[in-house]
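**User:** Here is a favour to ask of a fellow structure person. Please take any protein you like and set down a full record of it. No explanation is needed for now; the record alone will do.

**Assistant:**
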Amino acid sequence: MAALRRLREAPRHLLVCEKSNFGNHKSRHRHLVQTHYYNYRVSFLIPECGILSEELKNLVMNTGPYYFVKNLPLHELITPEFISTFIKKGSCCALTYNTNIDEDNTVALLPNGKLILSLDKDTYEETGLQGHPSQFSGRKIMKFIVSIDLMELSLNLDSKKYERVSWSFKEKKPLTFDFLLAWHNTGSEESTMMSYFSKYQIQEHQPKVALSTLRDLQCPVLQSSELEGTPEVSCRALELFDWLGAVFSNVDLNNEPNNFISTYCCPEPSTVVAKAYLCTITGFILPEKICLLLEHLCHYFDEPKLAPWVTLSVQGFADSPVSWGKNEHGFRKGGEHLYNFVIFNNQDYWLQMAVGANDHCPP
């Protein structure tokens, strides 16, 4: 009965909201974007806008590429050649594809050179590597986390530690996965990853971009200084967060009596805008690309605009081993980890960060 009650319980969700100004030297906006590594969807909404500027459109269309490599042996990610070519010469991210974080073995390569393995109990014991139990295992430990610093290993390739890791991945317990990879390089060799993994099945992909104009959209009224809103004057940050989810999901916000799918409507006070531009990018998107988008949206109000604010929302991969930085991430009933910027015309911003049941509090 206790197990049934736990299944019926709604999972814990955590939403953290804060406000600051992009001109504040203590602003954390860059750090929060740069340490949220595994992003699969980026959306921005611009009220009172019918068409994107060429500069912003070019930025949107150049958020790729990323790569899909099939049946890639894990030991390929720890070779001296890979480390020197990709990790030391840019920002490289890798994530196992089509693996469930709570059930399967999952691997992530962080841009700082940390290789994170989330392994089931049998695989963990077979590798012979040192790790620790997952923080979300419960009473019966079924998952273990192994962290390997590839930058540290590369300093001494003759060390016993490197030999042990290499022996584990090549001989003791060879592991093979389908991987998504993306690389923000500091040079100009765009095709290096395709040629480097040419002996494997590798495909280059560009993120999918969906552009749409929303007409007569009812929008919440916001005041940058009031996260909690003011009755009959402005809406709360939480109300905006819910409203954005409805807009991104294309939910009908009319709350008509004969609508049996959704009774949700825009929070009050609200205003109707004639046009709003919605852009959604889906793929494997590096933090560096999102930083560029955020920076451009920060300058959106350099020239006078009718819009009082714009938003930038980013969703992470539900089955990535980490959310922010090295914070362990699990799925349980949702696997969500996401953040949203509300950018105001006075350079103030709201930052909203949300995680699910198996996650640490956002940083």
Notes: Residues 160-172 form the longest helix (13 residues). Residues 14 and 261 are 26 Å apart (CA to CA).
